[in-house]
Amino acid sequence: MNAKGVFSALIIEDSMSLGALYTEYLRAEKASVTHVNYGSDALNELKQWQPDILVLDIQLPDMSGMDILAYVREYYPDITVIMITAHATVDLAVDAMKAGAFDFLIKPFDAKRLSFIVRNALKQRQLANLVSKYENSLSKDHYMGFIGDSIAMQAVYRIIGNVANSKASVFIMGESGTGKEVCAEAIHQVGNRQSEAFVALNCASIPKDLIESEIFGHTKGAFTGAVSNREGAATRSHKGTLFLDEICEMDLALQSKLLRFIQTGSFQRVGGVKEEVVDVRFVSATNRIIWEEVKAGRFREDLFYRLHVIPIDLPPLRDRGRDIDLLSNKFLQEYNKEEDKSFTGFSPEVENIFEHYSWPGNVRQLQNVIRQMIVLNKSDLIDVDMLPAELMQMRQEIAGNNIKPLNQDSKKNHNDSNISLFSSDNVPRKLQDEKDIMPLWLSEKQTIEEAIAVCGGNVPKAATLLEISASTIYRKKQAWEEFENKPCNPSL
């Protein structure tokens, strides 16, 4: 079945008149139909192509339809088979269903009955395909282009899966190199727009006087160099996803036009007068603190609320525990193959440095470091002498402070640590008098801030351990900033 809803069907019916009638029934359902009279002809067709739906008569001149059903279930299990017969019995219907038929029709039947069964069959096929795609994309340490099984990344995977089929705007935040475009593509690929276009624009890499044209397109003669009409990203992403990376780089005048586009779904090309209407899913990203940009007046507050519907905070690499090992070995295998090298792994000292280094460039920096070492060296093992200069400083700090490598147990504990709300002797803290009572909002604020501190500033990880969403933490933090200095603090 293709993106436009057209499906293919093969009818095996020895009656020419009935075959022609069933063909018209299915064509009314937008099917591409082939009709054959004999079982042998059907088997030859199946060797050439496989339909979505097989409408199979049980009694054929040259063989039994039940034999064809058994053959199809063994060699072409993805084909949905609908059995038909004029000589139905309960036992025959039960046998057909046990053998793998989707449903059973008794002649004569009308178009409405066949349509109902075919539509149910197609819905089941779509559901099966979605389940299969999800199961194949999600494994212990891989998800739609991401690598990592840390708690922080598992939280990201869950959010992507939950929002993928929604039209709600998604706002991705994270340091440079954390995988914001990978996240945006994952949302698109997991969702129901995956068969349409994914269009990505980096607002920081396009000159400010051209970015409006890149988004909305332009007409011939709109400006110097506009020698023909040109479609923009908004048009190209119709029914798909438009990803605006580094959106904080967009100037305020264009932000106003973008806001109108998001509100109405309509826009005009640069130099044009005709309104165009499109259906677009918006995903935006920035490596800045977006609320600070809003407060500083560099980003429109109304646009912020339009785009910041579903926030996703990508954790920095330094907060992802053993994901560093998974990523390092993945890149090692990849670049070994590309560069025709035969490195087998990393020395313990290199692994120790990787674990404790801050990785300001995150996954992208790790990727570049490993590629550099593979390209410039020949050996069996990546050794400490191959490290680039920025990591050699980490080697000296480790040696000076006698920092030992993390073993697997401690890594696990790092990822799975629980936040203690108890005193040092593991007894719940008790109030002694009225002076010990603090407002509920302040107690909640203290708990959340302590959780974030324990998690090294990783908000998604803290949210997971607190069993709340990361967006709840961001909302509360914003409210605290607004109300903390007021005489009466409201309950949040």
Automatic annotation (TrEMBL):
Keyword Phosphoprotein attributed: yes
Gene3D superfamilies attached to this UniProt entry: 1.10.8.60, 3.40.50.2300, Homeodomain-like, P-loop containing nucleotide triphosphate hydrolases
Alphabetical keyword list: ATP-binding, DNA-binding, Nucleotide-binding, Phosphoprotein, Transcription, Transcription regulation
Modified residues (4-aspartylphosphate): D57
SMART domains: AAA (SM00382), REC (SM00448)
Residue stretches making up the Sigma-54 factor interaction domain: 146-375
InterPro entries given in the database record: AAA+_ATPase (IPR003593), AAA_lid_NorR (IPR058031), CheY-like_superfamily (IPR011006), Homeodomain-like_sf (IPR009057), HTH_Fis (IPR002197), P-loop_NTPase (IPR027417), Sig_transdc_resp-reg_receiver (IPR001789), Sigma_54_int (IPR002078)
Domain named Response regulatory: residues: 8-122
Endpoints of the signal sequence: none
Pfam family, one: HTH_8
Name this protein carries in UniProt: Sigma-54 dependent transcriptional regulator
